[in-house]
């Protein structure tokens, strides 16, 4: 039996990377996916691809750092489908840098996107899921939320925060309201994430990590495994990394 079939799933950051791959995977398995990101052209193209291949996809241009945008995304989904079964907080940014270089603007960008974006999503879906008496909140963390490497300081801090948010949700919301709260933590994946890194001093670290990177589809399949569970079964925490990744 498939528990993905006919679920209504919001996926932030779905114009590329983990979010895009997850949207394709879930749609192929019968979910109605609502795509959310800032790039309308990419969202439109992805929605058209999914629908052409027999899936069901809608999209809403959304900046997850703006709480009103996230609320509008959830309202759009509920208006269209009558409910939201799963929220996947996939939007995020990984900007490695050395402390000595003090890339404060990049620190703030990661905090706004990786932490506040998750919180805004949680705040927007909770009332609906509580009313339904069920739901799934799946936060995409990182192995960097479990271990800290060179140049990872602020990024790791944001992912440790996501880990804490998810664990707190489990203790307060999962038990009381039957809302699953799950953390999926990928290791190094091949999504060209290193292209956004500006700190030249950290480039050597990136090169070593990329040698073991795995395809993003493996992360999407892992998220699909989490989504494909009945309301009374919750996968608490999943780490999916390259076999050769040391930390």
TrEMBL record:
Residues 7-185 form the Ketoreductase domain. Keywords: Oxidoreductase. The keyword Oxidoreductase applies. Its EC number is 1.-.-.-. It comes from the Bacteria. PANTHER family: DEHYDROGENASE/REDUCTASE SDR FAMILY MEMBER 11, DEHYDROGENASE_REDUCTASE SDR FAMILY MEMBER 11. Belongs to the short-chain dehydrogenases/reductases (SDR) family. This is SDR family oxidoreductase. It comes from Paenibacillus polymyxa.
